[in-house]
Amino acid sequence: MRSIMLGNEAVARGAYEAGVRVVSSYPGTPSTEITESTARYSGIHTEWAPNEKVALEVAIGASVAGGRSMSAMKHVGLNVAADPLFTLAYTGVGAGLVVVVADDPGMHSSQNEQDSRRYAVAARVPMLEPADSAECRSFVLRAFELSERFDTPVLVRLTTRVAHSRTAVETGERLEAPLRAFVHDPAKYVMMPSNAKARRVVLESRIAELARYCEDEAESAGLHRWIRKGTRLGVVTSGIGFSYAEEALPDASILKLGMVWPVPVGLVRRFAATVDRLVVVEELDPVLETELRAAGIELEGKGLLPRIGEYSAATLRRALGDDDRKPAAFAPGSLPEAPVRPPVLCAGCPHKGVFLALARVKAVVCGDIGCYTLGALPPMKAMDTCVCMGASIGMAHGMDMAAGREFAARTIAVIGDSTFLHSGMTGLLNTVYNGGASTVLILDNSITGMTGHQQNPSTGKDIHGNAAPAVDLEALCRALGVRRVRVVDPNDTFATERALREEMAVPEPSVLIARSPCALLPDACRDDVLYRVEPSACTKCRACLKAICPAMSGGYDGPVVIDPEMCNGCGLCARFCKFDAIRKEDATS
Amino acid sequence: MVRSILLVGVGGQGTLLASKILTTGLMQAGYDVKMSEIHGMSQRGGSVSSQVRYGDKVESPVIEIGGADILVSFEKMEALRWLPYLNPKGKAVVNDFELPSAPILAGKSLYPKGVLDELRSKVAATVVDAAGIAKRLGNARSMNLVLFGALVAGMGLADIDWETVISENVKKETVEINLKAFREGMAQARG
Q1: Right CATH number for B3-190 from 3.40.50.300, 3.40.920.10, 3.40.50.150, 3.30.70.270?
Q2: How remote is the C-alpha of A414 from its chain's centroid?
Q3: Are A463 and A394 in the same domain?
Q4: pLDDT reading at A589 higher than 60
Q5: Does B112 contact chain A (CB < 8 Å)?
Q6: Which of A154, A134, A173 is nearest to A6 (CA)?
Q7: Strands A582-586 and B32-37, how do they pair?
Q8: pLDDT at A567 over 60
Q9: Of B34, B41, B89, which is closest to A450 when you measure between CB atoms?
Q10: A496 close to A354: Cβ distance less than 8 angstroms
Q11: Does residue A83 or residue B141 have the better pLDDT?
């Protein structure tokens, strides 16, 4: 059957057809929909793990027990899962195991734009790279075959434009891959030095075999494609770069690599011999370029094309001096500019009350990864650092240790519920253990928000929305050794501010849990409660606009207006009004 | 021949759903079609876009500067922002609807005046009061389907069975209101 699918949905379809039994992942843009989609197929046990390391370990266990398994993550997630990945390369697999990693060139929704192909090289694991949704499906199927044939995990790399593009996919039936028998084989699976030394040798001979496969079989297996056109220009590329090259350079011959590591040097050499000029088109790092140059192949790459950000057809046209085909466009500067529209926290978002309080306290804020990173933007500007998942707590402790108690009294770590469970818990344990005094503010909005509402161990639901045990955050923090744990309502920004001041003044670790559900959750939308401005009472002082609510406007010529369609009933605005002009209404009456 | 449609708006306005319906219908009509969308942080009330390209064979899923044949803007100011992506000979379908951005709400900048006149002076523009129509129909959120109807009428693709595609892609309880919105949008664009 032919249907239109997101690259991520097609990855899930491929996994389903490959007979996958277990999928475990942690959400992260642009990879999230892979796991959300496998959860919709019967026959696949799908779960959200608290972080990518656990997710991959679950997949490894499933594979060793004899079931095909998969784990999907964003590029920075693979940093977290790198530890198991590198040793998994030594053990190999039981049943097929595929790790899907989605890179984000251009950083649409990420804190860096690292190139995951480096992990294939470093861990010595083969990597496939599809260019569209049809290939997402077929390459995942192929990846499982390769995984079992060569006894290796296989990486499948996507980029945002492949993961989040919808193109046509021809689907097939599910292959019922029977559970393989579990084999007690400590020499293969117990990686202590004596065993690992033997597996190290296996790893190298396996890579040599994979290199031969990539040279001799991958083209007929539908992974590589050699498109013979003109001889003036030849392009070696992979993934989304292929569609840009096809569009921008219709006369060029193209060697599209579907298996990007090991690099098929011999194949490229044969291709190079058929063209006058060879250009490598690869976003981000010169991975192919470096390997091909080392093999003595003459080519152009990063000297010609940028190392930073996404490419497009226009990038290639410009670089290769073929700019005549570009579409007609308005002359630059001939159009008026629109005022900027930065992303904002939603109407009713519980993070707002917190960041407004932090701004008033003038704290040094170690931030973390989530919607609440937007607290760094004006007008709140209440964040000083944001590095990676969980970093806020460790960094706040480091600041305290370097700059002393007085500085520590102004320092606070701010972290979401899902991020805290991902990798903040160990940071908090460290603070307690090493005599720190940080104040940690956990924003518990009952969901993993920014990636589009995924459940996590604190929400009381599993990936299917079924009831699941919910971790007790207060008890958890106490168990880690924190004696001062209290809960505040973030929508009461002034009470939150008072609690912050009290806890920051205390010379011991403390945890404040700001608890209020994400305003976009169906249960949180307070359709029954609305706030309305009484025009006769509004003095146009605009104090309420401090709530920076997208539902509010006006206050210059006329009174402030609250859009009833957008109001989520949090009441934050009313707390700033000294004239009782903002009134709570029962919207159902 | 490849045609490119750029749908822009503010996160939360339903541009993605409209694009998904468009893409599905085009595929069912036998076109090769690619759609590119951006998720994540920019969705939170920020400027968002999704890109749909269709024809006999589509290569890149991404529309470049000057590359769009039709620009559908769910918000007035966003039409201005994305206008460089529209071919000067292309068409704009614009929602006569203002959503002030955060700096405007904070009084740091002003909502631009005369946006519609500016657009009309540059390109062939169809202006639709999608917000007003949706409200009148009883569900402000169906604004995206009003605009989608206007787009379909302007594209010359009215013979595709859009109503079935819509019914299969919106929540069951909203099928009726969305179909009404779609029909109203088509009627508006046809004048």
Answers
A1: 3.40.920.10
A2: 19
A3: yes
A4: no
A5: yes
A6: A134
A7: unpaired
A8: yes
A9: B41
A10: yes
A11: A83
Beta-carbon count within 10 A of A204 CB: 10
**Is residue A409 in some structural domain?**
yes
Q: What pLDDT, on a 0 to 100 scale, did the predictor assign at position A587?
A: 67
Q: How far apart are CA A494 and CA A357, in angstroms?
A: 7
Are B44 and A374 within 8 A, CB to CB?
Answer: yes
Query: Residue A300 carries which side chain, given as an amino acid letter?
Result: E
pLDDT above 90 (res A126): yes
Q: Which of A156-165, A175-184, A406-415, B146-155 has the highest mean pLDDT?
A: A156-165
| Residue range(s) defining the domain that contains residue A388 | 351-515
Per residue in A64-102, is it b (16+ CB within 10 Å) or e — as a string? bbbbbbbbbbbbbbbbbbeebbeebbbbbbbbbbbbbbb
Same domain for A456 and A388:
yes
Residue range B5-18, pLDDT digits in tens:
999 999 888 899 99
Tell me which of A24-38, A79-93, A373-387, A459-473 is least confident: A373-387
CA–CA gap between residue A238 and residue A140 (Å, rounded):
16
> Which residues fall within 8 angstroms of residue A470, CB to CB, at 6 or more apart?
A457, A458, A459, A460
The token pair at A351 is: 């993070």
Check: complex ipTM more than 0.95: no
In a domain, A521, yes or no: no
Which B positions 154-183 lie with beta carbon below 8 A of chain A? none
| Cross-chain residue pair A246–B24, CB shorter than 8 Å | no
> In the predicted model, what is the mean pLDDT of residues A529-537?
92
Query: Could you tell me the CATH number of the domain that includes residue A559?
Result: 3.30.70.20
Q: Tell me whether residue A326 is in a domain.
A: no
- When the pLDDT of each residue in chain A is averaged and rounded to a whole number, the result is 95
Q: Which residues of B touch A341 (CB under 8 A)?
A: 10, 45-47, 77-78, 81, 101-102
The CATH number covering residue A162 comes to: 3.40.50.970
Alpha helices in A424-547 (DSSP H): 425-433, 473-479, 493-505
pLDDT at A242 over 70: yes
Burial of B191 (0-12, 13-18, 19+ CB in 10 A): exposed
pLDDT-derived band at A327 (thresholds 50, 70, 90) equals confident
